[in-house]
Amino acid sequence: MFLIIGKNDVPMYEASLGTVKKDIGHLNQFIIHAALDIVDEEAPLSSNMYLKTVDKFNDLYVSAYVTAANIRLMLVHDTKNEDGIKNFFIEVHENIVKAMTNPLFDVFRNFPTAFDAKVKQSAKKFLI
Amino acid sequence: MMQNLRPIVTVIGGQRLLESITKLVICNSQDQRMDYESVDFTYNFDTRRDAKSFDKYNPQGILKLSWTTKCRKFIPACIVLVFDWCGGVDSPILESPDWKHKEATILKHVRKFKEQCKGRLVKICVLCYLGSTNEEIILEEKLSQLKKNGEIDSKGVFLVKHKLEEGEMPGKIKKYLWDGCISHYKDEIDRLKKLKSRAHKELSGNFMEIQIRYNFKMGFYSELKQDKDLALNFYKKAYKELQDPTVNQIILLDEKRSVADLIVHRIQCVLLNLPNLLSKLVANQALNSNEKQLLLDRTKESIGLFKSHILTYKVSKNITCAFEYWKWLGEHFSRFGTLLESMPEEVYEKDNFWTHPGFYFQAAGVYYIMRMKVTVEDTEFLQSVVNWQGFIANSSLRIKDPVFLGKPKTLAQHPCEADVVEGMSLSDQSNIIKILEEAEIKHLPIALEYLFRALKFYKTLVPMTKICSELSYMLANLYKKKGDYNTDYAYKSEIVSKIDGWEMIQEGLLDDLISCADNSQKVQDLIQYTLKALEIHHKNSDLMFEKLNNTLTGNLIQINTCGIIKAKAKFEVKNITTYSPVVLNISFTNTLLCSLSPIKVSLFFSDPSFNCENFQTISLDPGLNKKISYKFVIKSLSLQELVLLKIIARYEPADMSWIDFEIKTHTKVLVTAPTPQLSPTFNHLPFALIGEEHILTINLHPYSELSSLKIMIYEDDRNPSSQKSSCILRNFPNNYMIFNNENMILEDGIFISHITSPQTLPLKTIFYQEKNYSFKVKFSYTVHKDHDIIYNSEEVYVLDVSAQLPFQILMKWMSIIEPLKPIVLNIQITNDFPLAFYLSKIALVAESDWKCEEEKKYYNLKVAEGNWISEYFVVKVLNIENACNIDGFLLVTWSRDKNVQDSLIESNGSVSNICKIPIVGFSSVVFPLDIEVIVGSEFFIGQVFEMIVVIRNKTKLDLEARIVIEETMWFLVGGGENAKFEVKGVGEKVFKFCLVGVEAGIKDLPKVNVNLAEVTRSWQGKVMILP
């Protein structure tokens, strides 16, 4: 489960990337939702955008990446793959910036479909 | 396990005094607080065994399971024997009056307990409670004997007369007990040290178990002795020894883990036990920087230890007892969370969750839930419990506790018997016992408790809203499992409102809430949650919408909600005028995937009089905008702005059942006063001649149909004429007259019943004063706009008319005005206007002390355009003191008609007017000083002669003036040529000047100038200069 969360704590983009083998429905979102509190506390103190694993729920890990515009990239995964996740986040961040510069789309409302394809491509490359 | 270890005082007997003794022991300072145990005189302590021989000693384990309990409960550090003179229920009988008998009883018990504590340094003190008896005098004598015979400490016998709290007694007892306890534990530590060193020498093989055991025990005794640093040293040593690689070869992992758990807990207890700092914080005293640092360091150290211990000793997930893993973690997290909870808020770091007790409770709660999943919720586990319970019951087996901590429990026929279960390994037995014990655990309430504690922490101490939502969700699910659907429902309702935008979570929660509301017949909630689900486009939207309609049809429901229907409202213009139609455009959007019909629209404004309910019925299709307009007229003149506060779109699929979708707006329109519907213009000549007809034309230009138009003209009295001005003598005070179109004097104004087109209104006016008239013209009328807008309006305009004399008057004083002297005033009357006028009389009327006895009379003397007439009048000023004060009028009688005689009768035709013109425009002023010069007439060249100047003040005022003698080429002048002087009222000033003539002939003397303010009076004479 991968989420991009905007400034007002509302998900802007959501994708199931196969990083969690067991399907636990909306619990994934709940785990990310709760981890936002931790991200919000840790992000201002960290000099890195990638905050590594910020929370753990049973066997599930929550990794986070916070952009300068306070857009939070959150990934729930069940296996540790720090470097892969970091690279995935960096690539998605680049794609967000590109999507934001596209004058035809308001990313805070709807990401372009090409963005979705790019996220899935990055997930294939770094996560699976 | 107790968090803080304290010395143990055993109180024997003395139930009557127990409360006082308890207070004495417990309510001590933080440093010297003790615990107590109460037993009776029949109690027997375990006697100490002889020191063990290490020859062929083979340790069976590290630490006996019961050792810590024994130490804390059954081995006293100090004993208090309470003898009650009044015969308490638990006191030995001391009724015999014979002291010897009493002494024997006391000594018997003292000796018994001394014997039982042999081998241990346990101080025994005797407390004799006299109560109501009066034997204190006798007793005090006998006590020393008792101490001697009983070998009791000299300070160890206390005589309590009435109350224990009296006098110095409590302090003495407390000190005795504290000292006794400390010496006891010190002795125990010394004994253990010796034992350890002997074991080191005597034991041939590896003695690591013994070493860990002794270090732990020494730590434990040091802790009891309240020597925290020493305790930490020993505990850490023991913990480190446990991790020694050689230990793994001889000690089972379970045992090692159990001992490590115990030690690590004791270390954490000691680290986080800072009573002095905590009592300071409780008393609201600030900690200094060192104390703060100590607090933070201790917390960090204990957290670090906790983390490393979890990593090192975490139980592996074994299939037989899957719950063991969660159990171990849950217990550790909950235990450490409880320890951390006792710390002050200063240690909570917002960004470090490991410092939050709530974090540990949350984890513990989750572990208990996981533990529950693999036990009581697992059918295989439940089956195995049933199987093993049957097996144990059939075989009449009992569970046998191990002797050593961490060793497995076993099954036996009797707890004291050796293991008898044949064909079953110890680990199997242990696993069966673990399963059976686990089945007894009430996981759900424990998980609930920990989650509650976590929720409380994250709601109050370190607020974390999102974590609270997660905790509430966990709690809700636990309540659901428990069968408490109401609480489950309450929690989920709370969460669903807080996570807008998280549609996946909302969808899951709404499913639960809808089914729960449906089951519990909460129709209002059912609709609210159904609407919410429809709003987020729930996967079952269609079914839900159908059910919603059925519910509305089947019940009488009125619901107020927001969302789903969105609306944008905008007034067509931003500013409107009163009585003008205003149009409000509203665009509705239905965010649902289904069509909503019928929708009744109501509007609510800042001024409730504009509210309109159900004014239009529409249907809203998904994804399409529906636009409606609302047109109305604002008729209130006091309204400055009108705000549309909310729109209510009522979905009413069934009669009397509806859902009101409330849409809040702040659309506003500014309201200004209505524009005048009548535009008047005033036409007249630039000025009017006084006493003559002047036509004033009012042009009326209506913009709408007007009725009942009333025009009032009145003089604006804001600028009354204060100056004297020319006027015509009249019998009544009004200085102007306005006639209407019927030649009637305009008093009640002009009334026009109906006007639709431009109209001209000529008015005849006559003004009788020379001034600028400022009139106000008020138009009151009723406007008929369209067919339904009728309102009254009133506007006031300003009309300025200048009135002046029909001729020019020029007054000129022909000489300086001096009192009592005849002065000539020249009056010149000039006709500047095209029409001729006829003069009858010119006269002067005095209003102050002056007179003019003549007047000029004519028989209709014609003064044509451009002609003028000049007359001279002789005036005498009678006022000596203020000759300049000449008030009065020039009266000019004239007419336009030469046949009209002098008359004051007025009519609208030709009249003879008597103009009253104020006398103004003096050409000269009276000089208040008289200058007299006295000088001879003939002098010779070079002869010095005197010129005396006398200046007299004609007024009563003191005046300041300057005298200046102008230089001349004929005379040399000596004396003041330029002097400033003051002359008193009616006084005089004399100046003497010496002159010498330099040339013969009749010569002008130097000119004498007297300056008073800006006026100069001069004198100049002539003299004959002889050669």
UniProtKB/TrEMBL annotation, chain A:
UniProt xrefs under Pfam families: Sedlin_N
Cross-referenced InterPro entries: Longin-like_dom_sf, Sedlin
CDD domains: TRAPPC2_sedlin (cd14825)
GO CC field: cytoplasm
Protein name: Trafficking protein particle complex subunit
Gene Ontology biological-process annotations: endoplasmic reticulum to Golgi vesicle-mediated transport
From TrEMBL, chain B:
PANTHER family: FOIE GRAS, TRAFFICKING PROTEIN PARTICLE COMPLEX SUBUNIT 11
Organism: Stentor coeruleus
Protein's name according to its UniProt entry: Trafficking protein particle complex subunit 11 domain-containing protein
Top-level taxon of the source organism: Eukaryota
One Pfam assignment: Foie-gras_1
All copies of domain Trafficking protein particle complex subunit, residue ranges: 297-534
